[in-house]
Amino acid sequence: MRLNPLKAIPFLFAFFLTGCMIVPIPTLEHSLDIGRGSIDTDVLQTMMERGATKEDVLLHFAEPTLSLCGEQIFFYEWRVRGGYLDVAVYGGTGADYVLHKTHLVMLQFDPQNRLMRYDRVTTWDVGDDIWRRATFQPQTRHADKTKWSQFLAWAPMDCELPTFLPVPCITLRATWKSPRITEAPSKPLRVRVAGFSNKRKTPTYMMARPAPTEVYKIATRDDTYIMRDAIADQFKASGYVLVDGNEELTVTGEVLEFDLRTTWDESTGAKALAVIEIELSIAGKEGDSDTVVRTYRSDAKVTMAGGTDRKAQHELALGSSIEGILTQIAADTILAHYLNRDRSKSNGVSP
Description:
Layout: H1 9-18, E1 20-34, H2 41-49, H3 54-61, E2 66-68, E3 73-89, E4 95-109, E5 115-125, H4 128-133, H5 143-154, E6 169-171, E7 190-198, E8 205-211, E9 214-219, H6 223-237, E10 241-242, E11 249-265, E12 269-283, E13 291-303, H7 310-330, H8 333-339, H9 344-347
């Protein structure tokens, strides 16, 4: 393989500026490092023309490296050695590094599990060690960007996006109203709103897809703090006295679900969706014999009209879902009955 002399100019310029130069030396592909080996796209083309199914693909190429969207998109990825990087250091000892070439073949199946399309992406990668050591760092590492950009162009709107997807991140701040709890006691109780724990399996950020080819990661404060603050605000708005000690009631909670994403409907378009489910536990001084446990769940959807601020629409959906939880708490007659029980004989605490 012949190198274009013009491509060496940036490296020479960097050498004189920094005293360090990185020169790629391509070779024939060899030494499979990662993956099962090459996927022949000519074979894929023939299989697609003959109406090959998912089972046919699995029989011919074995299990994929990764499958997403309910096994409707397959990734076959492998890495070989494709050359070396010669690092020259002015006045010092240079070094050689292996230059890897990563191949990716992505396949998509239709609802009947027939192969409908495929694509191939090839990138160069030398690993993180060389970039940490080199003064001059040419920007050649675009594997993730290329791979995931293609995936997003294919993925259906109802596809469960992977949490590791490298995308831009925005922060949401939600607001909500705190409805009064039904039949709040005339004599305010001393309440300590303790910590909330997180039982859900997904991370504290959510993936949102405002349009078929767009995606971004929505980050919120830890949802346990969000829900604790919301519950504390509601008790305070209902006339209870919030304390850090000598309490009559202790409120704790578990966040069972805290999901924020964009859904897509062909007739109505994109909607911001927020789903929250919590388990609320309120205990008196008698311990387990004086405890009530209640579960609440709220779904909120907000239509994302064209030209609107998508971030604001997700904030509105989040606030509406939180307010839905608080509204259920306020209207819960079982909880109200528990809160209005006469506890004067058991604790003798005056507010």
